[in-house]
Specification:
The structure holds 2 protein chains of 2 kinds. By secondary structure, chain A is an all-alpha fold. Chain A has 12 helices and no strands. Chain B is built from 12 helices and 14 strands. By secondary structure, chain B is α/β, with parallel strands linked by helices.
Chain lengths: 264, 325
C-alpha cells in the first residue's frame, strides 16, 4: 500500500485548503477585502469626488493596498503552517505516516499560495469589474499589476514558511512575518536609499512595481523630512527578486523542517 | 551483497523491530544510551520504565520524529533514518496523546491518514467504519474533533493507528487519558490484534496492563536496558515477592521473631494488629514453604496473599538497584 509523493502533496494541499475554508481567517480576510472595495467605491460619491477617468488610475487606488493584502495573506495562511504542527502537537498524528517532510511542506505551501492567490484574485477581479463599469475600458497594465502582486505574494509566503520552520511559536512566526514586511524591510529599504544604495533586493521596495505598472511612481522614503531621489524598481529585476525570495525561503523551510525534531 | 540482502530479509521476517546500539543525547544529557533490542514477529512487547527512563525517546526514534545520536532503528529490515517512508509504511503508531485537526471529524481524519498511505476510497470507508466501531466512536464519526475530550482523542489516535491494518503497532502509553472502562476496551483491542498475529511494541508504566497484554517485557531506566525477557519467565524468576499474612489473632512480638527465622523470609514488617508483610526470597517454591512453616508453628492464618505481582517487585528491585548505581 503505497502512494506517489505527488498524490501525497495534493492530499496535504487539499486538507490545508479545507482548514482555511473552515476556519475564520479566510472569511475574515474576505470581509476585509469587501470593506476596502466598499470604501473605494462608496466614499468618492459620498464625498462628491469624481472617480478616476482612466482604468489605470482607477485600479491604481486599489493596487496601493495589494501589497498589504499579500502580506496579510502570508501572515494568515502561511506563517503558522509548519510551526503549528509542533506547537499544537498535530505532528504526532501526521509525522509517523509514511510521508516525507518535504512533501508536507510542499503540500502546505501550495495550499497557502492557492488561498492567498484567491484573495488577491477576488480583490483585483472586483477592481477590474469596477474599472470597466466606471471607465468603460480595461488595460493590460491591470493584469500586469495583478501578476506582480501575485509574485510579491509568493515572496511573502516563501519567507513566512522559512520563519514557520525556524521559530518555535505560532505567535512569533506570524508577528515576525507581519513586521518584517510592514516595518523591518521598509526601514532597511529607507536606510539604503539614504545611503544612496538602491534597495532593489528588498522585497517591499521591489513591490512598488505593483502600482508602478499602472503608471504611478514609487516615492522613496525621505530622511528627516527631506525628499530623496525616488527609487523606481525595474519590473524584471523585481520579479526575479520575488521569485528568489520565494524559492530560497521555500527551500530553506524544507531543509530546516526536515531537520527539526518533534521532541516535546 | 546478495548475502547481506538475504540477511536483512531474514531479520525482517523474524524481528519486525530491531534496535542496534540506539542512543540519543541532548547536549550533555544522555536520554538513551545504546539500546539493543529485537522483537520477534507476533510478539507483544511491554516497554516498561519510570518517567524519564527513555521510553518515549526510543519510540520517537523508531518513528522518525527525532534523530538518533548513535545506532539504528530498523523496522522490517529497513533503517528508519535512511528510508523513513518505507520503514513506516507497515506500522501504526500512537505517540503520547496526539492532537488532531479540530476542523476535521474522525471520519475525515481517518480519510486524511488513509489517503496519505495510498488507500482507496472504498478501503478507507470500510476500514474507518470498522476501526471507529472498535474504539466506540461510531456515534461521533461526523462531529468536529475540536469538541472532543482527551480520552476521545486517544481513541481516534488508536483508530488511525489501526486503519491500514499494520503488521506492527507502536503504542506509547495507549491507555493514557482513558477512563477505566476505556482502558479495558483498549486492552481488549490490543489483545485481539495480538491474537491476529500482529507485532506490538507498547510502552507503559502500568505493570498490570503489561502483564495482561504482553508476552515479553523490556525494562528501561536512565536510558539503559535492565531486563528483557518473557513476562512468564521473569515473573517466575523474580527473586523476591511480598506476601501479606492475616492471622486470626493479633501477632505477638515473638511471632515476628519466629517468622523472621523461617527460611526464605527476608524481611518481616507488621502492617496492622493481625497483619504482617513478609518479603520472601526464592520464587513460588519458597512462598509455599514459608506458608507451610507458618502453619507448622501453630499460627492461625486467615489469608496469605501476594502484595502486587512478582513482576512488580522485580521492576521495583531493578529500578532501585539501577538508581543506586
Amino acid at each position: 500500500m503505497t502512494t506517489s509523493p505527488v498524490a501525497q502533496v495534493l492530499t496535504v494541499a487539499s486538507y490545508e485548503i479545507r482548514k482555511y475554508i473552515r476556519g475564520r481567517r479566510l472569511l475574515g480576510i474576505l470581509i476585509l477585502v469587501g470593506l476596502i472595495i466598499g470604501l473605494f467605491l462608496g466614499l468618492p460619491p459620498a464625498l462628491g469626488i469624481k472617480y478616476a477617468s482612466t482604468p489605470n488610475a482607477f485600479v491604481s487606488t486599489f493596487a496601493t493596498f495589494a501589497g498589504l493584502l499579500a502580506v496579510l495573506g502570508g501572515v494568515l495562511f502561511a506563517a503558522d503552517a509548519l510551526v503549528s504542527e509542533h506547537e499544537k502537537r498535530t505532528g504526532y498524528f501526521l509525522f509517523p505516516n509514511p510521508v516525507r517532510r518535504e512533501v508536507l511542506v510542499l503540500g502546505k505551501m501550495i495550499a497557502s499560495l492557492i488561498v492567498c492567490a484567491s484573495v488577491l484574485s477576488v480583490y483585483y477581479g472586483a477592481a477590474a469589474i469596477a474599472a470597466l463599469a466606471v471607465t468603460g475600458s480595461l488595460t493590460w497594465d491591470v493584469g500586469l499589476s495583478y501578476v506582480y502582486a501575485l509574485a510579491y505574494m509568493m515572496a511573502v509566503v516563501g519567507v513566512a514558511y522559512l520563519l514557520s520552520a525556524l521559530l518555535k511559536s505560532t505567535v512569533a512566526a506570524t508577528v515576525l512575518t507581519f513586521f518584517l514586511f510592514t516595518l523591518i524591510f521598509t526601514i532597511i529599504g529607507g536606510i539604503l536609499t539614504v545611503a544612496k544604495v538602491h534597495p532593489w533586493f528588498i522585497p517591499t521596495s521591489a513591490s512598488a512595481i505593483i502600482t508602478n505598472a499602472l503608471g504611478g511612481t514609487a516615492i522613496g522614503p525621505g530622511s528627516g523630512g527631506g525628499a530623496e531621489a525616488a527609487f523606481v524598481p525595474d519590473p524584471a529585476t523585481s520579479v526575479l527578486v520575488f521569485v528568489a525570495y520565494a524559492i530560497v525561503g521555500g527551500v530553506l523551510a524544507v531543509l530546516w523542517f526536515r531537520r527539526r525534531e518533534l521532541a516535546s | 551483497m546478495a548475502m547481506q540482502s538475504s540477511r536483512a530479509e531474514s531479520v525482517a521476517r523474524e524481528s519486525p523491530v530491531h534496535l542496534e546500539g540506539l542512543g540519543k543525547d541532548y547536549g550533555q544529557f544522555t536520554a538513551v544510551k545504546a539500546l539493543d533490542l529485537s522483537v520477534p514477529v507476533g510478539t507483544a512487547l511491554g516497554f516498561l520504565g519510570p518517567n524519564g527512563a527513555g521510553k518515549s525517546t526510543t519510540i520517537k526514534m523508531m518513528t522518525n520524529l527525532i534523530r538518533p545520536s548513535r545506532g539504528h532503528a530498523v523496522l522490517f529490515g529497513i533503517d528508519v533514518r535512511q528510508e523513513p517512508t518505507r520503514a513506516l509504511a507497515r506500522i501504526g503508531a500512537v505517540i503520547e496523546t496526539p492532537e488532531f485537526y479540530g476542523y476535521l471529524s474522525p471520519l475525515e481524519t481517518l480519510a486524511y491518514a488513509g489517503r496519505l498511505r495510498g488507500m482507496s476510497s472504498a478501503e478507507i470507508a470500510e476500514r474507518s467504519e470498522a476501526v471507529l466501531k472498535e474504539v466506540k466512536l461510531t456515534e461521533w464519526a461526523d462531529h468536529r474533533i475540536q469538541e472532543f475530550s482527551k480520552g476521545m482523542k486517544q481513541r481516534i489516535a488508536i483508530a488511525q493507528a489501526l486503519l491500514h491494518e499494520p503488521d506492527l503497532l507502536i503504542l506509547d502509553e495507549p491507555t493514557s487519558g482513558l477512563d477505566p472502562r476505556g482502558m479495558a476496551e483498549v486492552r481488549d483491542v490490543i489483545k485481539s490484534l495480538k491474537s491476529q498475529g500482529r507485532t506490538i511494541f507498547m510502552s507503559s508504566h502500568l505493570l498490570g496492563e503489561v502483564q495482561e497484554v504482553c508476552d515479553d517485557v523490556a525494562l528501561l531506566n536512565h536510558g539503559e536496558l535492565l531486563i528483557h525477557g518473557s513476562v512468564r519467565e521473569l515473573s517466575r524468576g523474580a527473586d523476591t515477592s511480598i506476601f501479606q499474612v492475616t492471622f486470626l489473632h493479633p501477632a505477638a512480638p515473638q511471632d515476628v521473631e519466629t517468622l523472621s527465622a523461617v527460611p526464605g523470609v527476608v524481611e518481616v514488617k507488621a502492617s496492622g494488629d493481625s497483619t504482617i508483610d513478609l518479603r520472601i526470597s526464592g520464587g513460588e517454591e519458597a512462598q509455599a514453604r514459608v506458608l507451610e512453616a507458618i502453619v507448622g508453628h501453630g499460627m492461625k492464618v486467615i489469608t496469605y496473599r501476594p502484595l502486587g505481582s512478582s513482576l512488580e517487585q522485580l521492576y521495583l528491585d531493578r529500578i532501585q538497584e539501577s538508581d543506586r548505581l
